UniProtKB/TrEMBL annotation:
Signal peptide: none annotated. Residues 169-267 form the HTH araC/xylS-type domain. Coiled coil: none annotated. It comes from the Bacteria. PROSITE patterns: HTH_ARAC_FAMILY_2 (PS01124). This is AraC family transcriptional regulator. It holds the Pfam family HTH_18. It comes from Draconibacterium sediminis. GO terms for molecular function: DNA-binding transcription factor activity; sequence-specific DNA binding. Keywords: DNA-binding, Transcription, Transcription regulation.
């Protein structure tokens, strides 16, 4: 039964300890915790952080109080992690969750509500007897990891005291808040008081991609969302996203999405 292989739990208790069983743990700390103890190492200042832990890790979440939920935990069994739908992800999730490294990543600003929605839908589905329930659940698990890949960049571990990781997080936060106005790497390096060379070096070391590719990724994601879920004209979308002209927006979509705005809306 899939109900025995996936569990969703809110972080409410003052001390939350890893349960019995051979489960992988994906822990999203939203806030209001003193820290998480992983194999006797205490991680603090972890608001809005996602942890990806295999069954070999011993961990305990230490909350400040029980007045509110501080996040969610998703437990996944081996059979779930070995499902073909997950093996087709761009990232090798199974490799990450089998690693002996503590993988942690910051959620990009604005993505929290979507991640929470996926987890809440999973939690609801697990208690139903709907037809095709298992397919729907695996689709949501896949969606969760796709979001994590695109918004958390879990490809590489981020060390606890890495100054470059801190810089990368500041860049991603700045990018999320300003991508419609700032679309050059130099714009961000100037704001962060570092050279564009050092910013690119840090991003490549931590995430394995360039700063420019992350800027493009944000614009692609916002372009797709606006084209699919709003009634705005492509001209309106182009100017709202900071493109200099509708023609440039069309060229951008053809290059990075594979379709013109009109073609993409017809899919």
């Amino acid at each position: 039964m899939i109900n025995d292989q996936i569990k969703i739990s809110k972080i409410v208790q003052s001390r939350h300890i890893k349960p019995q069983g051979n489960y992988y743990s994906i822990i999203w700390i939203r806030g209001a915790v003193k820290g998480i103890l992983i194999n006797k190492v205490l991680y603090e200042n972890i608001a809005n952080t996602m942890f990806f832990l295999n069954p070999s890790f011993e961990w305990e979440i230490i909350k400040e109080n029980e007045a509110q939920s501080s996040g969610y935990i998703m437990y996944l069994s081996d059979p779930i992690m070995n499902q073909p739908v997950l093996s087709r992800l761009e990232i090798n999730v199974v490799r990450i969750l089998h690693s002996d490294t503590v993988h942690r990543a910051q959620l990009a600003p604005g993505i929290e509500i979507r991640v929470q929605a996926v987890l809440e839908m999973l939690d609801e589905l697990l208690t139903t007897n709907l037809n095709h329930k298992e397919d729907a659940i695996m689709g949501l698990v896949n969606t969760f990891f796709v979001y994590c890949d695109g918004q958390c960049n879990i490809k590489s571990p981020i060390s606890k005291h890495s100054s470059k990781a801190t810089l990368v997080y500041k860049f991603k936060r700045l990018l999320s808040e300003n991508v419609t106005e700032l679309q050059k790497v130099n714009d961000y390096s100037d704001r962060l008081n570092v050279s564009s060379t050092y910013l690119n070096e840090s991003i490549r070391e931590v995430l394995g991609v360039s700063a420019k590719s992350l800027i493009i990724e944000q614009l692609v994601m916002r372009s797709r969302h606006a084209l699919k879920f709003t009634d705005k004209s492509s001209k309106e979308i182009a100017y709202e996203l900071g493109f200099s002209s509708p023609e440039y927006f069309t060229a951008f979509c053809k290059k990075h999405i594979g379709y013109s705005p009109l073609e993409y809306r017809k899919l």
